[in-house]
Amino acid sequence: MQKLLRLPLLLALLSCLMTMPFQTFADEPSGQPATEQPVKVNANTELPALQKRLDALKQRASTAKADKQFTSLTDDAQKLIGDADKLAVALAPQLTQVQAQLEVLGPAPEPGTLTETPQMVSQRKQLNNSKTLLTTQIEQAKAIALGAQTLSAHISGLRRDALKTQIALNTGSILGEKFWTPLIDPSDKDATRFDDFGSQVSNAWSQAWSDEWRLGTGIYLILALGIGLFGRRGLDKPMNWILPRWLPQGRFRRSFLACFTTLSTTLTLGISMQLLCYIFTRLPDTSQLVLEFADQLVELTYFSAVIAGLGIALLSNSHPSWRLPGIADPLAKTLASFPILLATFIFIFGIIEQLNALVGTSIAATLFGNGLSALLVALNCLIAPIRVNRMRRKMRAEGEQTEARSTVAGLIHLVISVTAFVILMALLIGYIPLARFVTFELLWIGLVVSSLYLLIHFVVDLCEAVFSPSTQSGKILKSSLSLNDRHLSLAATLFSALGKTSLILMAAVALLNGTFGTTTPLELLAKIAEIWGGKGLEGMNIIPAHAVNAVLCLAVGWYVLRSTRRWLDNDFLPKTMMDRGLRASLVTLFTNVGYVLIIMLTLSMLGIEWNKLAWIVSALSVGIGFGLQEIVKNFISGLILLTERPVKVGDLVSISGVEGDIRRINVRATEIQLGDKSTVIVPNSQLISQNVRNATMGNAQGVATIALTFPLDIDPEQVRNLLLEAYNLHESILETPQPSVSFKELGPTGIVLSVTGYVNSPRMVSATRSDLLYEILKMLRAEGISLSQTQTMILEQPHKAVAEE
């Protein structure tokens, strides 16, 4: 009965719902709808267009390098976010309308209760499909907006990282208002990010100081402060007692103390910071951002501590007599505070830079931190040489003795001053990325060179202490291995050279891999016109590491080659059993190969690919065909002389009427020194293609031969014995083979006797023969024997016959 009563009511409701859409559509043309209709948006075409824009932005972001490209990408990403949000907002009213219509229709009836008309079923299905489509489109629009926001943040990070390499980007002078804006009026986003990070640190500290963790936090805090403040001093006192008692006397004590001071400073400060950070990292609820910041803080502490430790060790104000570099005490005391200040500046502004990268601050805040750190480091590096020069003038005025100035020390002084001035000028004219790059390059190169200087002294002094015959270790090696002092000296030289070479190679790797950049321009000259044309340095895509690495490779390679050549020539090879000529050939060959390798490595560091140098090879081939064949021929001949060694340095040779000693075999020509000390330059090809007399090859002996003519009435046996006696008495004449006298000629002019004796070297023949002639002449006069006189024939013309009368 109740169902029958409800039936008319349901029919009336269905009729109203069916007639409502038709009434709406009928009212629309009149321009007076009952309610305001939402704006129709064609999302089916706009959503794919937005997605294509997002994909295109991602592709452009993956290849962008210049700051202008990042700026354009950021603007496009923000515009995309706005368009996606507008689309989502425009679709929301349509979804609301569809939802209202569905609510009017009500839920679908349960099976077996009431059968809907086909029109109602079709309308409900259509409305549900529209609702699903609109919901999906709104979610897609929001996803595109979220993706664009993520991409914008990623682009900001890429732009922040690119500032480290785009050193030619003019970002504004430090004297401008724009530079100080992040400090005076920070942006809301930066303030929010820093507040969020500060709240995370505050929450971590609150948890660390809670009742559950307070005891451990207090213990770690006390340990960190104790080790950081008193650790190095606590280790310094026992070491001062140990060094004189355990280590042998010599230079090894001071180099060991310097290394220990650097290591103790680094470890105490680093361990102290690790304990402080462990207070937060041990907590279970510490945020990931705080954990990353703690790890970076420890690394920065070790880096800064190494700089401070090296400065303290090299200045050695606590032990002036053990100071490694030759610095006067007043100068060392003047410089005492600068390494600590430098390490402090690096630590503080390194924290700011790392914090900017972690929380994702704006570019303005990043530039502010970079510029301020570069400014303080440059001022520190510029004031230190000024104070040193002022102290030197004061010491000279007071008559005190300053340290002995060297070329290397003066060069370092000049480089630091010029680099600091370049940093300041870059900051003043607005090139903050350039100033940051030069600052960190200066710090890194100074750190590597200082460490190399300290470690080389340590290795050399250690080898000398271990292999010295006067030390306990040297005596043990000498007795156990049956070595003599020469062998120990040779071992000390060899191992110290190996150690220095290894350290130099590691320093070269550190310099090349630790630079703060990626590449440098290979076409600077081509860009000069653009610079003067008004585009400025921003028109160049400068990435600095390749040029810096190439310069470092050239400088380090040249230094290593020169040092190794000097070590081979002066220290190592003279202690071997090689002859002088072989040593000179090895040194020359090593130098030539070294120069070729350095040039190849330098070109590789510049990024020049050898497969792109075909034009150079072609040009060289043409040049060789026309004018370089002689140079190439002499070069190949020089290599043959150095490898086959038909002649070597020190040989007495004779070629084309030139006789003298070979002093040097170069790549193109050979230097021959004559008896009057003049030098003849002979092309190497002549020594290969012509007949050369090598008087000293194979340890040849010299022959001193004298031929004398005596009258026919002398006693040959007496003269023979006299000549042999003169030869045997001379100290240069060898006993084996024995001197001999031969009867050369018997003629009307007299008897010719030739006496022959051997000397150690052909170079001794001339002087020995001269001495023998003096001695023989005195002996002949003493015995009354004269040499045959030259007979002259006088032809007299007969008198002319008297003419017949």
From TrEMBL:
It is a multi-pass membrane protein. Residues 708-786 form the Mechanosensitive ion channel MscS C-terminal domain. Pfam families: DUF3772, MS_channel_1st, MS_channel_2nd, MS_channel_3rd. Residues 588-629 form the Mechanosensitive ion channel transmembrane helices 2/3 domain. It is found in: Cell membrane. Residues 138-200 form the DUF3772 domain. Keywords: Cell membrane, Coiled coil, Membrane, Signal, Transmembrane, Transmembrane helix. Residues 40-67 form a coiled coil. SUPFAM superfamilies: Mechanosensitive channel protein MscS (YggB), C-terminal domain (SSF82689), Mechanosensitive channel protein MscS (YggB), transmembrane region (SSF82861), Sm-like ribonucleoproteins (SSF50182). Residues 631-696 form the Mechanosensitive ion channel MscS domain. Residues 1-26 form the signal peptide. Belongs to the MscS (TC 1.A.23) family. This is DUF3772 domain-containing protein. It comes from Buttiauxella gaviniae.
